[in-house]
Amino acid sequence: MTQKVDISLRVPGTMPIPELMPLIQDIEAAGFYGAGILDSQLLCRDVFVTMGAAAAQTSQLTLFPAVTNPFSRHSSVLASAMQTVEELAPGRIKCIIGTGYTSASTIGRKPGTLAQMRNTIRTMKALLSGQSVDFQGTPGRLGFAAGRDLPVLMAASGPKAIELAGEVAD
């Protein structure tokens, strides 16, 4: 029995969006599963604007940040952005979160910690599923959560990170 292998490509977030869209359309036309958009705020175009543009230019391609991080955007902002882009491409969006090395190093910060990743992933998943979350004593809920399964994955290396990914990520 032969199993299908889904292959995605990471696209250069440094390209101007009008130049990147034909490449993303070519990736879809070539039969690839997905396109990952680099997320590093001083090196690339905004990942969620780019994903929205790509969603409007494609019909089957899965789109995802490759990868976002737990500190340059609050978890509520990440959940809102992911849900908004998912409205443009229902069932074709997923989120991948990592420590954000390049995002951190370009602004003089250290990469995200495993504790930050755990909290961000749990919070995002709760918000995306329509649940209320406690933000330092203030309850918050994503008012337009669709309740669809939007996968939240974790980029991980090392035994503790891999264990955490198995615990909290899809």
TrEMBL record:
Gene3D superfamilies: Luciferase-like domain
Superkingdom of origin: Bacteria
An MF annotation (GO) of this entry: oxidoreductase activity, acting on paired donors, with incorporation or reduction of molecular oxygen
Residues in coiled coil: none
Keywords: Oxidoreductase
Pfam families the UniProt entry points to: Bac_luciferase (PF00296)
All residue ranges annotated as the Luciferase-like domain in the record: 14-170
Name of the protein in question: Luciferase-like domain-containing protein
Organism: Candidatus Entotheonella gemina
